[in-house]
Design brief:
mainly alpha; 2 helices; 0% strand; rod-shaped
Amino acid sequence: MEAARGADGRGEDALRDAAENLFQELQEHFQALTATLNIRMEEMGNRIDDLQKNVNDLMVQAGIENSIKEQMVRS
């Protein structure tokens, strides 16, 4: 009977090790995805800032900068 319990114990250990390895792998993938998302969000923020600057520059060139600022102040 003890031999059977020992085999079960080894099976449980192997299952626990496999679960821990899987969890570790999932955690690593999650961290990599999080890092990628952070980089993409930063890039998107930079692009939005650039777009806003370009729109503001175009508005100045078109001579409508003051009327837009006045509308924003009135709101």
